UniProtKB/TrEMBL annotation:
<dbReference type="GO" id="GO:0034314">
    <property type="term" value="P:Arp2/3 complex-mediated actin nucleation"/>
</dbReference>
<feature type="transmembrane region" description="Helical">
    <location>
        <begin position="29"/>
        <end position="48"/>
    </location>
</feature>
<dbReference type="InterPro" id="IPR034666">
    <property type="entry name" value="ARPC2/4"/>
</dbReference>
<dbReference type="GO" id="GO:0030041">
    <property type="term" value="P:actin filament polymerization"/>
</dbReference>
<dbReference type="GO" id="GO:0005885">
    <property type="term" value="C:Arp2/3 protein complex"/>
</dbReference>
<keyword id="KW-0009">Actin-binding</keyword>
<protein>
    <submittedName>
        <fullName>Actin-related protein 2/3 complex subunit 2</fullName>
    </submittedName>
</protein>
<dbReference type="InterPro" id="IPR042178">
    <property type="entry name" value="Serpin_sf_1"/>
</dbReference>
<dbReference type="GO" id="GO:0051015">
    <property type="term" value="F:actin filament binding"/>
</dbReference>
<comment type="similarity">
    <text>Belongs to the ARPC2 family.</text>
</comment>
<dbReference type="InterPro" id="IPR007188">
    <property type="entry name" value="ARPC2"/>
</dbReference>
<dbReference type="InterPro" id="IPR023796">
    <property type="entry name" value="Serpin_dom"/>
</dbReference>
<dbReference type="InterPro" id="IPR042185">
    <property type="entry name" value="Serpin_sf_2"/>
</dbReference>
<feature type="domain" description="Serpin">
    <location>
        <begin position="14"/>
        <end position="363"/>
    </location>
</feature>
<dbReference type="Pfam" id="PF00079">
    <property type="entry name" value="Serpin"/>
</dbReference>
<keyword id="KW-1133">Transmembrane helix</keyword>
<dbReference type="InterPro" id="IPR036186">
    <property type="entry name" value="Serpin_sf"/>
</dbReference>
Length: 652
């Protein structure tokens, strides 16, 4: 490691201490492990790109640092601390790293290789189960620190949209090269400041120590039995001048003290103590120039995976220190939580009530219903808690419909042409925010202090927001047909990538056409059979006519831009006045809004069933073959000896 680069790291460590000190109360004890923070941030650095990587690099290693040098330094720091782990008779040093990643979240190979260089574990957890994920991470930290660091991850830190937690743990225990005699330890006054003093157990001894002094302070070095490790203690020359000493010292002065002292006889009195200190590093690291890593808009950790939608939400640090006659025991842990940029996604519907946000869930769910069950449950819990006077906590849900289709509508601008804004105001009234949340099209605000006793209708409507957005198109063209406005332009809604919905009104019908993409030939066959079954089961001709065409659009789309492709199917619903009248239209809209998901769920479910049946039949066939297989004892070994004149004798 180059001394210049190491000096930059030392400077960063001293600044880190100064920032944390300034963020605490003057009477509060502070203890931290800068190396634990460095290693945890370094693991995030390996996954950073662009400006994000550059800002971490500059903050820790200085403006002149190069990427290859910074990477090498992080690895070298890890090696210096670990070697990898030291466990001598009189000393134990353990450094452990781990990346907890959301199940199914694929890490890029280069990032995995970098983690191997620092001996980091990679463990999959399910952050949707917040309680279990927190338990797993906290237990790992607790075990690695010999139970000295417990519950680093607090109950409300993890969220369903958490994608990963980077954790570092350090444990150290060593005996002094010459222990303090217990009988010399006495109760003595310890001055906290000019006014306060407390009684503490003071260890006393006179022996050879490392010593340095200048006009500001005195430095004492106490060696452990493994002489490569020392504890250094700084004492201001003037009593009660601790803050002045801390403010005046620089990292260069500290380095000089560590190098230019001497071994001399010193009479010492040192407090015997034990304490734990915890810090949230977010504001501190932001002040040191790393603010971009916490910026959901601009953070770039795309070297971790093929996504640019994650950022650091928090960095927590906790450290423990105990000093006694035998030696020192210390432990520290740092956790870097990384989160999905849910708030940075455009064209979404945000359910926003009081100051609690309900966003979309990161775990795919089959929801073949026009009512979102998750939203129903989330709002029910919040409303009931509010009315009961219970303590309310922030919640943050991230939902997805079947087949990975997120609840947000990428085609919102197209819906605006068909009166979606007026339809939403009509349906939700006073609960529609005049100004939506930034980057959102619709915000619904429910004041939890004014929730009515009967709130079922509020929740029912909120859970149908996506359905009601689509309803604006259908209702518009149902009205056209009812009034006889057959000459209106066709509605074209690109409801998914490469998939489109067409709605057109005639004097005697409304035609709704879905184009849908089939990814393989088996999907086409299953889809055709499914649609033929729908057509064949039209009871008494009361159900709408359903027409399926493959590859070419139906006649209704002649002279349009509808695509022609073997993998595209067109499903046409012919809706007569009995389907679009006011008595029937709600049910019709419900069914149309879930049709696409239902079709593709049927295809996937059928394929899974066929595959399971094939596996079952294969297993049965193998069992039959195994039963027919001759047993080994059926054959007896025989030796055949050839005799002259082509005769042979059989010998058992």
């Amino acid at each position: 490691m180059e001394s210049k680069s190491f000096n930059e790291v030392t400077e960063f460590i001293w600044k880190l201490f100064q920032k944390i000190k300034n963020s605490k109360r003057a009477s509060e004890c502070i203890f931290l492990s800068p190396m634990s923070v460095l290693l945890a941030v370094g693991m995030a650095y390996f996954g950073a790109a662009g400006k994000t990587k550059l800002e971490i690099q500059r903050a820790i290693f200085g403006d002149a640092a190069k990427e290859k040098d910074a990477r090498a330094l992080f690895v070298e720091i890890n090696k210096i601390l670990t070697t990898k782990s030291i466990n001598f008779n009189k000393m134990k040093l353990l450094v452990a790293n781990c990346v907890y990643i959301q199940e199914g979240f694929k890490l890029l190979t280069p990032y995995v290789e970098e983690m191997k260089k620092i001996s980091s574990d990679i463990i999959e957890v399910d952050f949707m189960d917040i309680k279990e994920a927190r338990l797993v991470i906290n237990q790992w930290i607790c075990n690695k620190t010999e139970r000295k660091i417990e519950n680093l991850i607090p109950p409300n830190l993890l969220q369903p949209i958490t994608t990963s937690v980077i954790a570092n743990a350090i444990y150290f225990k060593a005996q002094w090269s010459r222990r303090f005699e217990v009988q010399n330890t006495v109760n003595s006054d310890f001055f906290c400041d000019e006014i306060r003093r407390i009684k503490v157990k003071m260890m006393r001894d006179k022996q050879e120590f490392y010593y340095y002094e200048n006009e500001i302070c005195q430095l004492l070095g106490i060696s452990y039995k493994e002489n490569n490790f020392w504890m250094y203690i700084l004492l201001p020359k003037q009593r009660f001048a601790l803050q002045e000493m801390e403010n005046s010292l620089t990292s260069n002065q500290l380095a000089e003290m560590f190098q230019n002292g001497a071994i001399v006889d010193v009479t010492v009195k040192i407090p015997k103590f034990s304490f734990t200190s915890a810090s949230n590093m977010k504001d501190v690291l932001t002040e040191l120039g790393m603010g971009i890593i916490f910026d959901g808009e601009n953070a770039d950790f795309s070297k971790i995976c093929k996504r640019k939608d994650i950022f650091v939400s928090d960095i927590l640090h906790k450290a423990f220190l105990e000093v006694n006659e035998e030696g020192t025991e210390a432990a520290a842990a740092t956790a870097v939580t990384m989160t999905d940029k849910a708030a940075a996604m455009p064209s979404k519907q945000l359910f926003f009530f009081s100051h609690f946000k309900v966003r979309t869930m990161s775990k795919a769910t089959i929801m073949l219903d026009s009512n979102n069950k998750f939203i129903t449950e989330a709002l029910s819990n919040q409303f009931s808690n509010a009315l009961a006077g219970n303590r309310l906590e922030s919640v943050n849900f991230h939902f997805k419909d079947f087949d990975g289709l997120s609840i947000y509508l990428s085609y919102y601008e197209e819906l605006q042409e068909h009166g979606i804004n007026e339809r939403i105001r009509q349906e939700y009234g006073i609960y529609v925010a005049e100004k939506p949340e930034p980057q959102y099209n619709i915000s619904l605000i429910y004041d939890l202090t004014e929730i009515p006793q009967k709130y079922d209708d509020l929740i029912f409507k909120a859970a149908r927001l996506k359905r009601n957005c689509l309803a604006s198109v259908f209702e518009k063209y149902f009205e056209f047909q009812e009034r006889g406005d057959a000459g209106q332009n066709r509605a074209v809604i690109h409801y998914r990538e490469d998939e489109t919905m067409y709605v057109e009104a005639k004097s005697d019908r409304v035609t709704v056409i879905f184009s849908t993409v089939f990814n393989d030939p088996a999907d086409i066959i299953i889809g055709k059979i499914f649609l033929q079954e729908i057509h064949g089961k039209r009871a008494s001709q009361t159900a709408p006519q359903v027409i399926f065409s493959l590859g070419e659009p139906p006649l209704e789309l002649k002279n349009s831009n509808a695509r022609i492709s073997e993998g595209i199917g067109y499903v046409t619903f012919v809706l007569l006045p009995k389907h679009t009248c006011k008595a029937s239209r709600d049910n019709t809209i419900d069914l149309l809004s879930i049709f696409r998901s239902y079709l593709h769920y049927h295809i996937k479910g059928t394929k899974a069933f066929i595959q399971s049946r094939m596996r079952s039949k294969t297993d049965e066939f193998l069992k039959i073959l195994n039963r027919a297989k001759p047993k080994g004892s059926y054959f007896r070994k025989r030796r055949i000896t050839w005799i002259s004149n082509s005769e042979y004798r059989n010998r058992g």
